[in-house]
Amino acid sequence: MGVRITVTVPMLLSDCTKGRSAFELEADTLQGALQLLVAEYPLLKVHLYNEHGEVRKHVLIYYNNDNIAWLDKLDIPLAAGDKLRVLQAVSGG
């Protein structure tokens, strides 16, 4: 049985998550949570990952206070109260 974590996505992507910008997922590891996120909400995959399976440059995914790009591995065991946040970097002038 997995651990329940809170997931938030930008309102701009809530059309990919059945209109929700915050919800819970249950998984054992961070990697499992990321896989479940796109399995449950397949429309998110194209917004989060490029064709090589890498997180898109304009997307930031945070596990608690850490950008997942900074982590050495993603098979981190989850704990109660953990959070997964999807952010979109915005640029322009």
TrEMBL record:
Gene3D superfamilies: 3.10.20.30. PANTHER family: SULFUR CARRIER PROTEIN CYSO, SULFUR CARRIER PROTEIN SLR0821-RELATED. It comes from Paenibacillus taihuensis. This is Molybdopterin synthase subunit MoaD. It comes from the Bacteria.
